[in-house]
Design brief:
Blueprint lengths: L1 E5 L5 H15 L3 E6 L4 E8 L2 E9 L3 E4 L2 E7 H5 L3
Parallel strand pairs: 1-2
Antiparallel strand pairs: 2-3, 3-4, 5-6
């Protein structure tokens, strides 16, 4: 399973802390945080100890995910979605 959170200033704490706990308890394996304001991306994978950060990127990076071979996310395309 995958949950993707798009952060906004008004929900940042809730998305980064509270929802992380909710998803962990529900057993959501992949949790991604996308921050359009800071232009950052973080990918977490659930393991026995909780969520582990497995991929990060910012602005113009092309992010790949170690558990999803072949997946490449060109972050500049996220920021230019008008």
């Amino acid at each position: 399973t995958l949950a993707v959170e798009i952060l906004s200033p008004s929900t940042r704490r809730k998305d980064c802390v509270k929802k992380l706990q909710i998803y962990r308890k529900a057993g959501v394996k992949h949790y991604w945080l996308v921050d359009p304001e800071d232009k950052t991306f973080q990918a977490f994978v659930l393991n026995a100890n909780g969520y582990a950060l497995v991929a990060t990127g910012e602005t113009e990076d092309i992010v790949s995910h170690p558990e999803l071979p072949g997946l490449k996310i060109p972050l500049h395309e996220l920021w230019n979605m008008d």
